[in-house]
Amino acid sequence: MDTKAKKVVSLFGAEPAGGSDDIPIHEQVFRELRRQILFGGFLPGRAITLRGLASSLGVSPMPVREAVRRLIAERALELHGNRRVSIPAMTSEKFNQIAFARSVLEPELAARALPSFGSRELRRLREIDAKVDRSMNAGDLEGYMRANHAFHFTIYRLSGADTLLALVESVWLQFGPFMRTVYGRYGTSNLDDQHRRAIAAIAANNEKELRDAIDEDIRQGFQFIRDEVMSD
Fold first, then answer.
1. In this predicted model, what pLDDT tens digit does every residue of 126-149 receive, in sequence order?
2. What is the CATH number of the domain that holds 48?
3. How far apart are CA 71 and CA 37, in angstroms?
4. Rounded distance between C-alpha atoms, residue 123 and residue 128, angstroms
5. What is residue 185's predicted lDDT score, i.e. its pLDDT?
6. Domain total of the chain
7. Looking at residue 87, what DSSP letter applies?
């Protein structure tokens, strides 16, 4: 089959990964696996075969192997000798490094994005935050994680700092599966809403307040799950 005509089966709704026939199959597979890692399709402690991944996505093993190699390079997956892949274990040292990276990089990205915000961008951010609230109230964990990710990266992508953005995207990939596990166990209703604080800071063009809101959002999230993700 022509790779441009084939679509990867998405495990996150009816839309195919990639969303376009113009996207090569190997890129569709990579994007879909990446989405699964970010939003709960891979849970820590569970391994799956490359053949099983290919079957679930409706593709041959070759594009899966290529996508897995890319995700291993991003430290989002690890390959075992029996041709199975899993989420790398979380250790206290790794956890602390991820927390440090997020607390340093994300407030900086938000500050760099501030001059690019206009009324349209701010309206879009409010719409995304409303989705966060609706998902939280409905107990929709996948919806919450997707909307929360969209909120942060809608801000960060306006920064124009592509190198820093790539680093933060990699960090989220390494941590996302553990967020899903803990939210599934305890929910999200006890998290304070720092998003509204960030929106207000953007509307007021207040860089310090925006930095503080993003930093506190990160800190409370890590405090919430710190005791649940350690493996050593």
1. 999 999 999 888 888 889 889 999
2. 1.10.10.10
3. 10
4. 9
5. 60
6. 2
7. P
CA distance linking residue 141 with residue 188, whole number of Å: 8
Tell me the torsion sign for CA atoms 109, 111, 115, 118.
positive
Residues 81 and 96 in one domain: no
H-run or E-run covering 219: helix 207-229
Per residue, what are the HEC states of 99-158?
A: HHHHHHHHHHHHHHHHHHCCHHHHHHHHHHHHHHHHHHHHCCHHHHHHHHHHHHHHHHHH
Task: Provide the residue range defining the domain that includes 53.
Answer: 25-86
Same domain? For 120 and 219 the reply is yes
- Same-domain pairing of 178 and 123: yes
pTM: 0.85
CA-angle at 132, arms to 205 and 148, nearest 5°: 70
As a whole number of angstroms, the distance between CA 172 and CA 86 comes to 16
**Given a cut of 80, is residue 18 above it in pLDDT?**
no
CATH of the domain at 136: 1.20.120.530
Q: Which pLDDT tens digit goes with each residue over 76-86?
A: 999 998 889 99
